[in-house]
GNAT family N-acetyltransferase
Amino acid sequence: MTWTITPEHPGTPTAAALWRAYYTEVSDRYYLLHENRRTDAAELEREVARHTGGELTPPTGLLLVARYEGQPAGTAGLRLRPDGSAELTRVYLHQDMRGKGGAARLVEAAESAARTLGATRVILETRKDLTEALTLYARLGYEEIEPYSDDIYADHTLGKTL
């Protein structure tokens, strides 16, 4: 059972399918928790079209795709910020791939890529209902930091010095 993690352009069909799966899951979780409904199909299409991932391309960004035994399993994106940090975004593993060690490998690969891009710190925002993510980040040494955006969905802002 092997994991591979490689850079991929956000516009590839694989990356686009993983982004759609990520957005569907986090959006459905939010709406089920707050409004007792799933994501509206039109809203999903608007968000997928609006967030193309173009900022996750070199030289100031990167998208990593994780594969488990050759099958696309997840993503992690990085975008460099003017303060020397790299923002970690779109961290996602398909539900059936969780518990196999891929999430930690994916985040560690993103941290290594951030160092290569010249970042001195990794920062991220996440929601309180994404409990698996919060547990993972705590285990990997991420700590609460001051918010860096006004994102209404960001319940936690975390950082880690590289």
